[in-house]
Write a structure and sequence with these properties.
This is DUF58 domain-containing protein. InterPro entries: DUF58. It is a single chain. The protein is an alpha/beta fold. It folds into two domains: 224 residues, 3-Layer(aba) Sandwich (Rossmann fold); 32 residues, no CATH class. The protein is built from nine helices and ten strands. The strands form three sheets. The chain has a six-stranded mixed β-sheet, sandwiched between helices. Strands 1-2 form a two-stranded antiparallel ribbon. The protein starts with 7 loop residues before the first helix and ends with a helix. The relative contact order is 0.14.
Amino acid sequence: MTQPHADPQATLRARADGLAAPLPALLAQAEHLANSVLPGAHGRRRAGTGDEFWQYRPATASDWGARIDWRRSGRSDTHFVRETEWQAAQAVNLWVDQSQAMGFSGHKSRATKADRAKLLALALAVLLLKGGERVGLMPDMPPRAGRAQLDPLAAGLLGDGGGEDYGSPPLSVLPAHSRTVFLSDFLGDPAGLQAAVGRAADQGVRGALVQVLDPAEEEFPYRGRSIFTSMGGGLRHETLRAADLRARYRDRLAERKDMLAGLARATGWHMLTHHTDQPAGLALMWLWQQLDARRAV
C-alpha cells in the first residue's frame, strides 16, 4: 500500500512545538535562580548622564556652577550637586557551548553540563536585562535591551548545537568595550578558545570564562575494566585498569585549568570552575560580581 505523505506544515508545526515546550520551564528556572541570588535586582548605581535621581553630594572646586542644586544647598552652609544615575547601557554577549561533550552527567540525579550552563546564562541575562543592560547570544543574536529579549535568548539556548564532540567560541566581531561570557567545559582543542579570547581582547572586550564540569570529571572514580567513549561516539578507549589512568588524567585536567587561568590573566578576563553538584547561585553571583565590577572601567 502506498503510504500517505506527511503534511509538511504539520511536521514543521510539530517540530516547533517540540522545541518550544522546554522554553517556559527554562525561563521559570532562570528567573527563580536570578531572584534567589539578587531579589529586586537594581540598575547601574553609578554617577553619570541620565534622568533618574541618585544622590546629592557636596560640590567640589571642579564642579560648574550650573551643576549646583541651589534649592538643596540653600538649606545648609554647603553647596550640593544633584547626581543622576548612569544610564549608558552595557552590551554583554553570551556564548554557551552546545557540543556533544556538554551532554555528559556522571549521575542521573545531576544536571548535564549543558543544562547547567544554559541555566546560568539565562539567569545572568535576567539580571542584566533587569539592570537595563543589552544582552546577546553568540554567534548571531546581537545584544538588545528589554524583557522581550528573554524569549529569543531562551530559544537560542535550546537550539540544536550540532554534532561536534567539543565546541569553541566563534571568532565574532564584538562591540568595542563590551563584555563577554563563555560557558563550556573547555576540554577540547584550546586553539579555538585562545583565538576567540585573544581577538576579543584586541577589540577592548573583557569578560569571564566559566568552566562547567561534572564531579566525575574531577574525581575520575573509575576502576577495573572500563570503556570510555566521547558523547558523540567519535572517540573510544578501553582499559582493564581504569584506576591506573587516574593520576595522569588529573594531571592533564590540572594543566588545562592552569592554561585557562593563564589565558584569563593575560587578557584581563576572569576564570571560574563550576561543578554541577554545586549550587548554581554561587556561579551566578560570581558572574554578576565580575560584570558589575567592570561597569566603572
